[in-house]
Amino acid sequence: MSCMRELDKFILLQLADSDKTIWDLLDGWQFTLAEFISTVNKLYEEGLLDTDGKKLRLTREGKGRVNRAELRYMPRLCGACKGRRITLPKPYRGLLRKFRRAVRGRPAPKDDYYQGFVGELDVAARIALMNYHGDVADKKIILIGDDDLLSVALALTGLPSRIVVLDVDERIGDFIDGVNEKHGLTIEFLRYNVEGPLPKTLLNRFDAFSSEPLETESGMKAFLSRGVACLRKGGVGYFGLTTLEASRRKWFMVEESLLRMGCVITDVIRGFTIYPSVYFKEPKEPFLPLLKFKLKFDFKEKFETGWYKSSLVRFEAVEPSPIVRWNEKIKVELVDPKESLAHPFSYGPPKPRDGEGPRRARKLAANIDRARQKPF
Amino acid sequence: MSCMRELDKFILLQLADSDKTIWDLLDGWQFTLAEFISTVNKLYEEGLLDTDGKKLRLTREGKGRVNRAELRYMPRLCGACKGRRITLPKPYRGLLRKFRRAVRGRPAPKDDYYQGFVGELDVAARIALMNYHGDVADKKIILIGDDDLLSVALALTGLPSRIVVLDVDERIGDFIDGVNEKHGLTIEFLRYNVEGPLPKTLLNRFDAFSSEPLETESGMKAFLSRGVACLRKGGVGYFGLTTLEASRRKWFMVEESLLRMGCVITDVIRGFTIYPSVYFKEPKEPFLPLLKFKLKFDFKEKFETGWYKSSLVRFEAVEPSPIVRWNEKIKVELVDPKESLAHPFSYGPPKPRDGEGPRRARKLAANIDRARQKPF
Fold it and tell me: In CATH, which of 3.40.190.170, 3.40.50.150, 3.20.20.370, 3.40.50.2300 is domain B105-136+195-317?
């Protein structure tokens, strides 16, 4: 659908007054990655956009296409809260210090699980928003997937009455066990694959759930169904959803699923969570070869972070009733073949090596791979 | 559903470190007005809350109930953007000056139409957000109901290619005609009642629509259906919805309606729009007698503004298909008898006199009146 919008102008407006790297442009992009690639390529081929190999800039003709009046009235994302709506009071500094210390030596993201954790500040911001809505103190909280180690930060506040982590990755359980012991915390860990039935003891037991679901249709359905199944009536959920990799049709499907599960959406805050796309030393960022392969011009190759963001969706479970029943199995696709077939990267660059880059980047790479294997 | 949440703590947390007027408390309240009344009354009767007749404060026992750790980690609403996510660049100052001058002598809110317009700054903020999403420049925009005179501010930017206002109030049409003439604008006005069929010439013609719908079920359905009917495929909508007077069940109904109409919700920004509840000289604020009647303690009677806020919902019409067909009539209720029967104000204070206070306040008063007439 967003194809029906003139996406060119968003790039033109961004470059109107200053040259920018490809990462700067991605930072301001509100549509899919696929649309980004096709839009900048189109502008380049039309001679509206040029590059010195590092930064992109508009040509004279490109500048002529900028609607100056539109630019004049373009607001800025709030510099104080970065569009998150809230600002963190001082005690979060101490929390962040403790959290950073506690998660040293955390497990590296693993390819098989499409992991890749969000930054510590973003973890703190999520706790702040949850607390703003009264969803932390004395609450029973369940996390489905926790490579972000939100559980540890939550536990360090001392506020929740119970924290349960479900994750397929045993290493996260081991790490949490260690943190529990070292810091005197009581986070419960259960190895669990969202494809399988939920332990009955978890049903309708929790006040809040949080997750960063896999952004495939089956992934969204599974993660949200499991979360909703764990919520008591009136419980709340928090999850992330991107515009970079989830089309408007997928957003529609997600919202429809939520309503069918008796949940009402109360907040959708764009760009609330930032994924630091490079996290470990010597990153071999899989986006890089993808972009190099698909973009029709040279660009600054030094990978920059902070542009991969997701919207935070908050919902309340008025009458929680998961569309995947708690004891039902569901096959979770790591990629959506249909969406990946439409992907401009398709049939392109090589599969990244094991252990490279974050979850979302690897998911994208896997999309391509899948698309190559199943041409139609 | 929010009845299942412990609402007491939100009042306790707000009063923990400073005494506040009833209006300060309302400003921070995230639930319904009815829940506000019952919560503060309960706290007062339990001896947790007291008053000097002006400000409310916690008693010693009340302070003992505050969760200090929860308070420590309570974030602040961003002071820079007031939680709107964006900040306005300088050109908006000039726009605001021009807008304020242009709307001098605007029609006073009229009781029959449940009007009551939002402040000029909020009108500017809405334009800024719309422009942020690329929904203003060179766009055909339709406003359903325009006592806010958003049309005038939009026209003064010079950005939209067409602005059409539908409003039942002929005085707004006359006023807009005058503004058009004086400022050389071309806003189109059509007298229209949302209950009636839409002029066929408006169907699927617009890129964007904006409205502050009447918050009854039939009102929401009518305003949103008419708006969606006017949108082209891929068009966008902006509308306000409160938590003060719309229950979570009503939010659910609104979201379900949107999805049924082929629209996907892209943003829900709480408290984006502030209604200045007192606007004209010598306000006879109908909330005042209502609160005086229902609250079990004295409070500062000088009415303060800025606490009546609505969330801004943005949606994109993936496949626009209104649930009320364009040529179909719909009866719009000014109040929802079911919701008003559950209202704690019911059977209470007298109906406010004609011309008093803003739209929402009068709607509330009408609710009571209706509830009195139809006890069950």
Answer: 3.40.50.150
